[in-house]
Amino acid sequence: MKSTFYILFLTVIFLNIFSAVAQNNKILFDATKAEMASNADWVIDADIHNIFFSSTTHLPYASSGSGQSNPQRIPTPAQSGITSSTAETYWEGSLSAMAVDCAKRGYIVETLPFNAQITYGNSTNVQDLSNYKVFVVDEPNMSFSVNEKAAIVNFVKNGGGLMMISDHTISDRNFDGVDSPVIWNDLMTNNTVQSNPFGIAFDLQNFSGTYANMAPSTNPYYSSILNGPFGMVNQIKFTNGTSMSLNTTANSSVRGLVYKTSATTATTNVLIAAATYQAGKVFAIGDSSIPDDGTGDPGDTLYNGYTGDAGGNHQRLLMNGMIWLITTTLSTNDFVSNSNHFSIAPNPTQDKQIHFTFSLEEIQKTKVSLLDTLGRTVKEVVFQNELTTGMNYQAIDASDLQTGIYICKFTTPTNTKSLQVIVK
Questions:
Q1: pTM higher than 0.90, yes or no?
Q2: 17 or 332: whose pLDDT is higher?
Q3: Which residue from 115, 116, 75, 78 is spatially nearest to 96, judged by alpha carbons?
């Protein structure tokens, strides 16, 4: 009787973990706030371009003819066709490079279309924020409603990850009288949940430049974002962006990561920032040029900031930040890695393959072992000839393993990491 109860208890625990981890793989990119207006194209994929903006209400609407990008919920072709060598032009959008990189890690990416709703805790909305782990909003050009502001703050409060990207002042692309810094600041100071929950305010500035004023290694987010799984970030390039001012009284966790000036522990002149709020996380960027990959709506003038500017540092910054946002702690164990050098995604596995990413400063003999809950090695694979310095993507066939929890052990001559993985 006791053994039966114990098995049922473990089954319930496993199903709860499975459900929570599965949600961790989903990222939602917003397109409800005129992110496509004018020369902006902050979407991951659009098959048609028929969005127009009313000259009186400044609201988007779909009509026949050639207009701005009209992104659909599910990008096409299907992301199941993405491999480690897939180009960002697999999808059409100026955020497609970041989205393809996310898909390569096994994350599921979707768009919230222009006529959809931002909600949290609404079971009738299939794209309710509670169904996602990360919400990306790149340069909103329309104000959030009272309910939308509460939804976003509550999403973070309850464990969600928010990537909030602003742009410079007087960048009103749909001519409704408000810019992205003002829109973000309104969300943070005028929501019904908590005033200034993230401790971040975007300045009303417009400047450009290349900056290498990085936070020190003692910064609590340094090893995850500035020196994370995609490598070290050494500099960034702003092309008409704005800075931030931080309020550590409102949120004691908020920290700057990259600065306009050399004061790398200050709370002003911040270009990149991070914070936690209750159970969730926030990653803030002051320039929408950074994730722009230079491709998208053929009617727009776009520039490759993602890999073209700052020597590839923007890709490392954004993907390190995304991995940090999507990483969540379940009770006392991380089922999605927050390690600098070894991570597993998706977790639980899909298609009976364990996909993992690791970084190497030099090519070394690398071994990955799978151990069962009794500590017995059930599978072991050695990599060497196929490795490169920097990021490596590999996979282990788990089709011969039973469904359950395993320990995945990563070993090099100079490093050892162990993570739990759920094989389904």
A1: no
A2: 17
A3: 75
For residue 143, give both structure tokens: 């104000």
Q: How far apart are the first and last CA of the chain?
A: 27
Report the residue count for the chain: 424
Alpha-carbon separation of residue 229 from 233, 259, 360, 386, 393 (angstroms): 11, 22, 10, 19, 11
For residue 17, which of 421, 399, 330, 333 has the smallest C-alpha distance? 330
Tell me the pLDDT tens digit for each residue of 218-230. 998 998 999 988 9
Written as six digits, the tokens of 229 are 């799984």
Confidence at residue 5, expressed as pLDDT on a 0 to 100 scale:
45
Write b or e for each residue in 281-317: b if 16 or more Cβ atoms lie within 10 A of its Cβ, otherwise e: bbbbbbbbbbbbbbbbbeebebebbbbebbebbbbbb
Number of helices (H) and strands (E), helices first, in the chain?
5, 26
**Residue carrying the six token digits 């066939």:** 397
The rounded distance, in Å, linking the Cα atoms of 413 and 250 is 45
Residue 136's DSSP bridge partners are 29, 163
Place of tokens 């890695």: 337
